[in-house]
Amino acid sequence: MVREHDRQEAKWPVLWVRAAMRTAILVCLEAGPLHGYGIALALEGLGFGRPKGGSLYPILEELKNADVINDEWEQSEGGPGRRVYRLTETGRARLERERRQWNMMVGVLVGASSGHAAGSSDDAVPGRAMVDDTTVGGDLAGGSEVVTHAADAILQEVRSAPNSGRQVADRWKRNVHADRDGR
């Protein structure tokens, strides 16, 4: 009997998850290559819920066609091979740009709720406002610890799952820890 893993529901409204899904996939691949199931688990760990293949794979194909990710078949020693996805340099640039844009949008929304003026209306339009990279990096740096904890939890689940893709999980862990240690 195959045991069904408990699915974590998304932490945010469905429309937000759909809007951010492409960026979230790029975030998952930033630490290293993953197969589709690994991406689904990583998304779940980030609070996006675990997407089903019918919604995940069309997005992966779209990102591949945009040259944001690439894929290759990786043969497994103990089981069937898998398609492994990697972030391209174009993808890294897109992720950096989208992080800035999301950060600006959150800044506008947080600024509006706290009564602070967000600046001119151009500040809310991605690409028009200039964002100081140190500010963006500082804002993102606080979240990197959360991502690291999520990645560790994902690794545990991937390793315990049938046909877990231990090689992919081990690479993910090495990359996350190297990134955390500043290497």
TrEMBL record:
It comes from the Bacteria. Residues 168-183 have a biased composition (Basic and acidic residues). Residues 25-96 form the Transcription regulator PadR N-terminal domain. Residues 159-183 are annotated as: Disordered. This is Transcription regulator PadR N-terminal domain-containing protein. Coiled coil: none annotated. It holds the Pfam family PadR. It comes from Bifidobacterium simiarum.
